Amino acid sequence: LLEMVSSLYQEELFNAPFFLNYLQKRGLSLESIKAFKLGLCTNRIDYGIENKGLNKDKLIELGVLGKSDKKDKTYLRFLDRIMFPIYSPSAQVVGFGGRTLKEKAAKYINSPQNKLFDKSSLLYGYHLAKEHIYKQK
């Protein structure tokens, strides 16, 4: 489920030149952006979730969506944020970090702790680095 959401985020980033240029100006190559599967959460993610028939209750539980007090509506927790998928050591997406470019919002937010995502036990990018680390030993 989180892999599908991550794919939606990635697709959005490559349709948003402003955010893609921002990352490149920060020194990230297109190759790195693709390797780390960075993305972007926009309003269109709602349509992607609907079109793919993703389970909204599960997405609330995993922290992708939030639940509004009004009329039982959901909202995108990471709206207008550059998305960093966080992987388990076995290369499964278990959560996200999101960075805003807006001044007044919290700069970074993460997925909430849940059965898949325990931030204190994960090292960002380890799933990509572990093979290289083992070769060095």
TrEMBL record:
Phylogenetic classification of the source organism: Bacteria, Pseudomonadati, Campylobacterota, Epsilonproteobacteria, Campylobacterales
Pfam families noted in UniProt = DNAG_N (PF08275)
Q: Which InterPro entries match?
A: DNA_primase_core_N_sf, DNAG_N, DnaG_primase
> What domain of life?
Bacteria
Quote the cellular component terms of the Gene Ontology held in the record. Answer: cytoplasm
Q: Name one GO biological process term.
A: DNA replication, synthesis of primer
This chain belongs to the protein called DNA primase
PANTHER family the record matches: DNA PRIMASE (PTHR30313)
